[in-house]
Amino acid sequence: MPLESRHLKLGPLDNNTYVLTCPVTRQSAVLDAGFEPQRVIELVQREHLEVGWLLATHAHYDHVAGMLEVQQAVGGVFALHAAELPLLEAVNEQADMFDFPHVDVPAVGHYLTDGERVRVGEQELEAIFTPGHSPGHTAFRHGGTVWCADVIFNGSVGRTDLPGGSFETLVRSIHERLFTLPDDTRLLPGHGPSTTVGAERRNNPFVGEAAGLR
Q1: For residue 140, which phi and psi values (nearest 5 degrees)?
Q2: Using one digit for the tens of pLDDT, what is the confidence trace for 42-71?
Q3: Per-residue pLDDT tens for 123-164?
Q4: Is 149 helix (H, G, I), strand (E, B) or coil?
Q5: Which strands, in side-by-side order, build the sheet including 117-120?
Q6: Got the DSSP string for 27-53?
Q7: Where are the domains of the chain?
Q8: Would you say 145 and 188 are in contact if contact means Cβ atoms under 8 Å apart?
Q9: pTM of the predicted structure, to 2 decimals
Q10: What is the CATH number of domain 4-211?
């Protein structure tokens, strides 16, 4: 039985926040709580979910700014890759860059590693190290779905002009970690609509065959 994936589109940057739930135990993981954390809290409480994890794909402001408020309301262990710590510690410098309010963030309770299995009730998420947009960017896979955050979008890719970004590393992550998956694998990004591995491999103008890259 697959994980249930609830999707919230939040904030001025149209962030996709996801709540992933084991349908048997109702244990859940909140993925990338940035803006409007109260809406995440309301969903969790309304559905009577038990939050075990607060998973951050990376530590850009719009993906972590709401994590502490969510944690204080519904619990959960805050987890991200260790390479994201410099960005996490500079979250309010990021806020100043984009004229967002300062926030506090949770203490890291678990450092994600490539290939580890994160238990969500009776289900598992596989952590996939996908740096390039940021140094420790991590996607999560369950079956035929990958929550890919900002490494790749429908017809685009994550920006690499922010601290710790690298376009060459991003291309390598996409080609070696995502484009090796089956064509029908669903990609659920951090912004914008979903897509598939096959569609992006063929048509993505930055990293796909349409760009002359394979």
Answers
A1: -130, 135
A2: 999 999 999 999 999 999 999 999 999 999
A3: 999 999 999 999 999 999 999 999 999 999 999 999 999 999
A4: strand
A5: 117-120, 123-129, 138-142, 145-149, 186-189, 195-196
A6: EEEEE---S-HHHHHHHHHHTT-EEEE
A7: 4-211
A8: yes
A9: 0.97
A10: 3.60.15.10
